[in-house]
Amino acid sequence: MRNVKIKGTGRYVPDNIVTNFDLEKLVDTSDEWISTRTGIKERRISKGENTSDLAFKAAKKALESAEMSAEELDLIIVATVSPDAFTPATACIVQGLLGAKHAAAFDLNAACSGFVYAMQVAREMIKSGTYNNILIIGAEVLSKIIDWKDRNTCVLFGDGAGAIILSSSDEQGIMSIKLGADGSKGHALKCDAVPVNNAFMDQVNQQNKLRFISMEGREVFRFATTVMAEGIENILKDNSIDINEVKYIIPHQANYRIIDFTSKRLKVDISKFYINLQNYGNTSSATIPIALDELNEKGLLEKGDILIFVGFGGGLTHGAALVKW
Ligand code: UT7
To answer: Where is region (ACP-binding) located (predicted)?
Structure first.
């Protein structure tokens, strides 16, 4: 069986920093509320760059880090809930920008768990011998689907992209991935698309809903705290690995309190979790690869380190990956 290893990482976030104090001028909120309820201090918000622009820049950095040319890529997967368009897929736009002329390309939507879902798809394609080198990007411009008048949501999210290259290898890399979903709770985190309207309908659909993210925060919070802890426990158990052997857990970055709750339930020090949500807010599918690239860039990862990536989000979906660096 072929092994699959992370060969390179990259990230890109827009330059524009929006602080909690900036948001106090937009909605009835405060730095105090946002900081204590979420841990977020600031986020990056695009001033015009679209999802493919962020994805392309993160991908370039990942290719440089893997010392690989775009022509060596066999497949590009972009995990996103905020694509540039219904079609072409954001992955196809990135394929064109990179000049990755031998690569197939498609988007995948599993919301904030999208990056871990994409890892599983890519891993299986490499393991089976279909492909050798796959670029995965988690990329979001959530600011275009946020209601900037809704304090319940607009303070939580940010824009950004993170990327990795997965390649076939003789050494063990991705050890295990476990995915899951609970579609019955999908209503808890939503963003509608275009309503059905066509020439054959008896009545024109007047429903002209604004297509913004809406969320039942407490329900998602409950789901998150359960699946994060269980996801970590299960993947460790399945692979007979003790949590003390894990160097870092890279969680989806939505709320400091969710991560804190998880660390207490698992009885591990919070320092095992790599947290950067104070700088970026929740960038959905991009949080895990952005955090991974920061860790890599800071030189905090050594060959052989065991890592866990764990995500949850819209769908509702969840996923955990056990990785040997
Ligand atoms: O990627 C997955 C995405 N989502 C998540 O992971 C989110 C999971 N949920 C959460 O992180 C938390 O539920 C939130 C941060 C969204 C909300 O925190 P909470 O402690 O659950 O607050 P709440 O929704 O229960 O609201 C408490 C109060 C409410 O006021 P009343 O009804 O008690 O008077 C809200 O109206 O806080 C109010 N509130 C705000 N106040 C100031 C809600 N948003 C704000 C705000 N500024 N931005």
So the answer is: 253-257
